[in-house]
Amino acid sequence: MSDKAAATIDPVLEEAIFTRRVLRFTLGIGLAVTISAIFAWQLAFIVPVLVAKFLVDRTEPTIQTVYELLISMVVTIAIAWLVSFGPVQYPLVLLPLLALLMLWAYYLFSDPKWNFFATILIVSTLVLPYLGILHPGAAIVVGVGLSFSGVVAVLIFTLLHILLPDLSPNRETHIAAGLTNDQRLYESVRALIIAFPVITFFYFFEITGALLTMIFIAILSLQSAGSKSVKVSLFLLITNGIGGALAVVFYNLLVIVPELVFYVGLAMICALFFSQKIYSDPAKAPIFAGIFSALLVVVGSTASSTDADVATNFYIRIAQLFMVGVYMVVASFFLETRNWKFLTKRSAV
């Protein structure tokens, strides 16, 4: 639908569309948090993040959504199997393979059509081999958990659209990539340059508790790899900081009232607030979506933790979130102040 056509939508219909999307987002987050908290399988805390991503990025479920889900499950299990029997103890073999998979994920991520699959691929690529090093045999269990999280997120997304179908006359689900193949490759290599050094550091030194940090860096690095990457990284630092601050408030309220009903209700109140901001001003939607995602990841990973010292680990996660933002700014500044002729030469053709 063109901008001119979009502008002619009846105000009553436009208000109904907005209200339904806010309601769908709020109920979706509430359902996702409830299921992930009750059943608490491996990486269950990712379900609300995926549900939020679906509801913001996609108008409705399509066969492409199911297709991406099936492929991501196969690839995740394949990576988990290879990790269990493959070269995890040989960094000089493992790290180049990780770099290739990350490059593929970043390339796909630049096309909204493959956004979901790329997200799962990035997480699988970093988390599963790392677990294979620290805890041999755990990769298969976590791989199945990650795949199951994707299945649950798609089912929740589909269920909500069955119960509350979108009223928008614009049924276009995916936005065009907007970049040529060479430009996408260029941006993907830049993202890899930002993320890979710290990933290599964690793998070589086998730093315990670095999984969340790696996930944040992997997912956020592509967003800071384009033009004006320093400004985008500063934006990510601010959103992560606000998300972390809200997570502190959220966590301390949960400490006062450690009840599932209160946890779900608080998550739905946050979802209600952020969904209104996201859908009322699409230009600023990435800001509020980024803050809400940071909040979900930090609080969700802490709520699902079985560690004895939960409070200490929560603040460690907040510190990790902040360090990711600082690293992104520094790495993006370094990247932007260099003349990458070997990358720009081809993309300029």
Based on helices, strands and strand pairing, what is the structural class? mainly alpha
What best-fitting shape do the alpha-carbon axes yield? globular
Please tell me how large the radius of gyration is: 20 Å
What is the H/E order? HHHHHHHHHHHHHH
Report low-confidence residues grouped into runs of 5 or more.
1-7
Specify the number of helices. 14
Helix content: over 70%
First CA to last CA: what distance? 32 Å
Beta strand count:
0
Main pleated-sheet profile: none
Please state the average pLDDT score: 81
Task: Estimate what percentage of residues fall within beta strands.
Answer: under 5%
Structure summarized in a few sentences:
The chain has 349 residues and is mainly alpha-helical.
Overall description:
The chain contains 14 helices and no strands. The protein has 349 residues and is mainly alpha-helical. The model is unreliable at 1-7 (pLDDT under 50).
